[in-house]
Predict the structure.
Amino acid sequence: MMLRKFSTAAAILAYRINVDAFSTSPSRSALALARRWLSLQSTTDNNLEGSLVSQTLEKMESDEEFQEISRRIQRIGADGMTREERFKRRRALTELGVPNFMQFVTEKNVDDTADGAIQNMQLYRSQPTILQLNIGLYCNQACSHCHVESSPLRKKETMSSEIAALCLKLLHNSPDVDTLDLTGGAPELNEQFRFLVSLARQWSIENKRQLTIIDRCNLTVLLEPDQTDLVDFLKEHQVKVVASLPCYGKDNVDAQRGRGVFDRSIAALLKLNAAGYGTPEHPELELDLVYNPSGPFLPPSQETLSLAYKRELMKDFGIQFNNLLTITNMPIKRFADYLAKQGKMKDYMELLVNNYNSQTVKGLMCRNTVSVGWDGAIYDCDFNQQLGMQIVGEIHSSEIMSTTKQKLSVFDIQSLTDLQKHSIRTDNHCFGCTAGSGSSCQGATA
Ligand code: SF4
Ligand code: SF4
């Protein structure tokens, strides 16, 4: 086992030495990197070879919390769990004397029109510029805070080629959209991932459209045995990588994301850097990292934490990246379960409410992003998607000459501009986006 571990380390090290031969910075010398990498290897009992899937499944089988959640899903269904969860947040807010989210926001923003975002106690979008596709819930990990409850067991929830093609049509018909944001699960493990990326990039070149394609990457996927060519694929199509790394320390990452995830994440970052990602020599290959708190507290300042990440990752591993994005834990799904179990739901909601920041409303991600689920259903954001809060709109049928209100999917609209007239569906989980410096898939918003 030791020999196999060493061979992966040696391969990655060879990459680094290659890159470092051209580096003038003594702190990133190949020798220093070799020492750091080898010391990482000698302090870990993790095998970097093979898939993480079996390890994750083993953990899920022995983890009492996961077992309890699946028993409850069998008993009351996912919708029942969502209702229960919503009730717990509502009860916490009632105890705190806090009204519903939009009433609260309207009262607090009375002097600040938030750029037209608030009208008649409703929240409205500006022109959508980001099309975010959650292409499936399958993941090689099963993180304790995961708001989409992904795991290797979520094999059924996966986007079909028909839906993927309709999403590309939406992109084509929406002239203001400049970003295609692919998320999951681990989106790269979905059959449609490479299809979507290749066609979207080809389309953007042929139509001379500026298009940022984002891969929301968990990093460990880059070490999956059937993904050895993934970095090359991402580089070839100039995909921006936005990668989760909730800490620069091993213990915190492994506690939140599973044993061995930190070592694999570091190996993956070295691989990305070796390909040019996150380096000043390749500004077109962007690599951003994402931090989320390990418990019921707000993220620290994005700027300050970014400096600490840059310093520590460079010092320990010679790793470079572009930006750090900080994200607040939403009080939904696995994190809501954790809060309820610890008796901390009220405290957490109080923290979010007390730190409400009216400056965040203008930049809420639901105002410039539209989120599409693996089945084509359309939502205001990925959180609403996980809570089943689909956008409801009016559909006119010329056949029966009538207009009906219904939940919208990619089958019902031609362009994201069609959604402009519909207000955003908000609820008590939205306090997670307006606390402190604000939170979104693009990091802090204020
Ligand atoms: S890697 Fe991301 S999608 Fe997968 S379980 Fe963890 S948080 Fe969820
Ligand atoms: S959760 Fe956040 S992004 Fe989603 S609708 Fe609420 S405020 Fe908007």
